[in-house]
Fold each of these.
Amino acid sequence: MVMRPGIGMIKGTAAAMAALAGVSAFAGASFAGMGQPSPKQMKFQDAATPIAEQVHWFHDYVTAIIVVITLFVLGLMIYTMWRFSEKRNPVPSKTSHNTTIEIIWTVVPVLILVAIAIPSFRLLYNQYTYPPPDVVIKATAHTWNWTHEYPDQKITIDSVMLQDSERAEVIKAGMPANQVPRNLAVDNEIVVPVNKVVHVLVTSSDVIHNWTIPSFASKVDAVPGRITATWFKPLKEGIFFGQCSELCGKDHAFMPIAVRVVKEQVYNDWVAALKARDRKKAKDIIKSAAIELDGAMKTAESGAIVNK
Ligand SMILES: [Cu+2]
């Protein structure tokens, strides 16, 4: 049995709490990008998987609780300094115990911790409950690039970060520039189908690295001699970037991961092209998916303008 929190219901509670805490200004605004960082980003990168949505909800929920507690303690301190200063309260009370208040300040924090623990354990449970996979990928980290194998399809893909000159070439050849971000774009993206469960088995050939895609809320260490794992179910098509997130050496910052989420048919075509060892066709499939995505994004943007 897979437990699923009633996201709609708890989202409402979170929104109310966020508004209460005065952080609602950030709740609706989108300062983050989908699949990659954006200028002046304030929040997480947009969520593209159910787990990432739950992580973001939990973050907002705990933030709201923190804000309320902080404001309460601040208010209490300011009031105490004002009300019980020597001037206003020259003869201090000798009270040393008050049973009622002691029960309150023990029980209320316990209730707050329980209110945090329940959704926290639910999130952990969901993160570590692997639905049956539609696609399995084995990611092997090297200093400093990634190899992704699809064991069922017998495909191996080496991904190396594009240098500036290579980026310029790729953009000139027709790739939309915003899908080839500097220090994130790689020569060979990996491709997965949308709305399918992908298991990623992660290991390393040398030192400890980390396989991360922020928009998927996937992050797991790549440990030499061991297999660790993560899973994601992308709900949106697009290109999603991540970086090695474990300090691993001089080029730690330059071993990005690029996952392209496409329609199932496009994924099947890409797999077929690679199985036929037709790397050029596989790259063309990625490029046309990129151009289609660019068109869809522009339509969405102009649609938003029309709607205003
Ligand atoms: Cu690394």
Amino acid sequence: MVFVHLNALAIVAIFLNLACHTTGFTLQSLWPNALITSSTITPKIMIVGFYPDEQSVWEGIPEFDIFGQNITVPGLSSQFPQVHCTKEGDVCQMLAGEGEINAASSITAVAFSPLFDFRTTYFMIAGVAGINPEIAGIGSVTFAQFVTQPALQYEFDAREKPENYTTGYVPQGSQFPSQYPSELYGTECYEVNARLKSLAVGFAKTAQLNDTAAAARFRATYRGYAPYAAGTTEPGVYECDAATADVYVSGRLLSEAWQNYTHLITNGTGKYCTTLQEDSGVLEALLRADLAKRADFARAIVMRTGSDYDRQAPETSPIDNLYFGQDGYTPALNNIYLAGVKVVQGILMGWERTFKRGITPENYVGDILGSLGGRPDFGPGSIFTMDGESGTTQLMRKRGRGQLRGRRRPL
Ligand SMILES: *[C@@H]1O[C@H](CO)[C@@H](O)[C@H](O)[C@H]1NC(C)=O
Ligand SMILES: *[C@@H]1O[C@H](CO)[C@@H](O)[C@H](O)[C@H]1NC(C)=O
Ligand SMILES: *[C@@H]1O[C@H](CO)[C@@H](O)[C@H](O)[C@H]1NC(C)=O
Ligand SMILES: *[C@@H]1O[C@H](CO)[C@@H](O)[C@H](O)[C@H]1NC(C)=O
Ligand SMILES: *[C@@H]1O[C@H](CO)[C@@H](O)[C@H](O)[C@H]1NC(C)=O
């Protein structure tokens, strides 16, 4: 159902478009989101959560009314069909649904919706996660620079893996767990804007974070084992990286496998601290929207708060960790709002001076293939620059010759 009425501006846009055609010039090339109408929403920030608790934290807050307008967007999940925005449309919030598929599909739908203009919008992932006690404790707030996809690997059941493997997971196209993958799908790793991340961290650090007695008691069970010292400290704000997998892992060995994969795929620069089920899907959708000039990947912020540990405390089991280890949930949810609202306010207050024109990244920003241009500082190199025979170029050529089609056996 078309319900966006064409106002005078849109009619001018159509007219200009026709005029441009006669000169061999399309308006779309100048103004990709034409027709922009008076009802197009141009948010300054879009907060992305994944399930209802991650929306509730934004309801009834003093800073803004996220229910100022509700926009039904074709292509969103049947469970969460609406984007919610303030009346002015400067702050929006949506639920993408859980898991990689829901995340990618929902963000694609919204990013390509003609109801919005996201070219200057900051997309902030704001959800809970499993947290690595080597880095931080439950209740803490993390901002990632790298987002990896560790379940995109071969897998043997641990009971059937070769004796000399440290895990059942093996990078695709490789022969043992610590070998760099020789076959890439393009979604293995994303890097976001580090300068923007630092600004977000600065804003979040002004928050008075929440903690509870139950969370503090649970953190204390990680005491007495030196590698987990950081995990026993009260909630703080951290810069560390995220691993996306549909598989919700619990236990030291699987968490360590995610950690090792993150180390491998980021060429040793990534510092794994959170495990979650969506962020790679969100970032791939934003990357494609950027390629289509509908969003700016350099405006992505990945914020996750620790609701539970990825691995068990000393003296306890992975199964106890999964089923009885959720005491961090309340502060994690509260801190999505408490830290997140500072980021929202920071962006709104600094809009004219700083954020409107964007934060120019100083690091490589994009995927492992170099899709947005530049040379990835992880992975085998860009497939798009012809300035050398990078590993990825060779890899893609090889695939192009059909040597690695279909379901491939390890070489
Ligand atoms: C938007 O949806 C919420 C929750 O469903 C509702 O409480 C609110 O009144 C709606 N806002 C408008 C403007 O209709
Ligand atoms: C691991 O063991 C398998 C046999 O189970 C062997 O084929 C392989 O070469 C070994 N790999 C390494 C890295 O030692
Ligand atoms: C992770 O890597 C370290 C260092 O290479 C290794 O000792 C450990 O066994 C690996 N863990 C898993 C679960 O593969
Ligand atoms: C954290 O939140 C809980 C529940 O919302 C509340 O009872 C508690 O007082 C808060 N604690 C702090 C330190 O803000
Ligand atoms: C990352 O590591 C792989 C495997 O060792 C290597 O082929 C690649 O050149 C490295 N990439 C960068 C950017 O250093």
Amino acid sequence: MTDHAIISADHTKALEELARQLDPAHVHRAEPLAPYTTFRIGGPADLLYNATSADALATAISHARALGVPWFVMGLGANILVADKGFRGIVIRNVANAHAIDPDGRLHAESGAIVRDLVLDSVRQGWSGLEHYVGIPSTVGGALWQNLHFLSPAPERSRTMFISEVFESCEILAEDDARRVVDASYINFGYDDTVFHHTRDIVLRATFKLERADTATLHRILQENLAWRGARHPWLEIHPSAGSIFKKIADVGAGRLVDQCGLKGFRVGDAAISNMHANIMVNLGAATAADVRALISHAQQAVADKFGHMLEPEIAFVGEFDVT
Ligand SMILES: Cc1cc2nc3c(=O)[nH]c(=O)nc-3n(C[C@H](O)[C@H](O)[C@H](O)COP(=O)(O)OP(=O)(O)OC[C@H]3O[C@@H](n4cnc5c(N)ncnc54)[C@H](O)[C@@H]3O)c2cc1C
């Protein structure tokens, strides 16, 4: 028996043991991941588990850790590229979405709560703080992982606003498997960066502090933000994407450099650089992860040759990629 065969046999045994420990109603085997991502790209996960509560999320991770099964927590899949070969291990899809707003404006949410739902609930109840993030596909966990941001407020749009501005605390499952409540100093919020990029801590729940505001004004801001986005970004329902592909380069703009290389509309297979926004790659129908990786490499090379900048991907790569 080869080493590979031994690893495979152990892997399969561990996966089956893990599946036995989870609620069978929420476990899927060999489940294609493309439909769970905004890019609509990605092969199967050995196991996909829908975690319907923060406790179920924590338990699934703890079991996977104990059995040595590779695991990945997925929110709305809006900032990831899943490999064509998929993911060997368990993908835990976070659909734990309970949330409520206290009379003092504290919003408590499980980490799978969808930001759109929180925006609408808070605006309807006359609470301000989340309306800047309308139209951005995200769970609370993804938003904290990335320090969700948007050029706001209207009409000036003179600064980037961050979700950290309304964040108060969150409960995490730490790398040592302990649950603890942490504040902003622990999260170390940066631009597209937090502690979650550098550890395997996972957000279970979060609390945000909102401010009283006039509901009619908030509704107007929602409309303005959606109109602003709609005029500048490809529409997700028509052009699946993962949002911005490359990290911001201070005072330069990654998209501007790609644009100045004449790459808007450039295609590899069915993956294309958007004609509307050069830092967004879109799936024209049947794009593969390999197409996107090749397009990323092409844009990086073109920008490096012309401007001497090495563009860094902002999205997370999930699963088994061939080394390129
Ligand atoms: C059309 C479009 C527009 C976008 N516009 C913007 C924008 O204006 N501003 C902006 O900031 N972003 C934008 N994005 C990017 C994306 O929306 C954000 O990164 C979002 O926060 C991703 O959330 P998610 O739930 O989909 O996370 P996923 O994509 O599912 O996961 C992303 C990463 O977060 C980790 N993660 C997920 N949940 C947790 C958790 N509970 N605890 C710890 N880590 C976790 C995952 O493991 C993964 O590494 C856009 C994306 C798209 C597709």
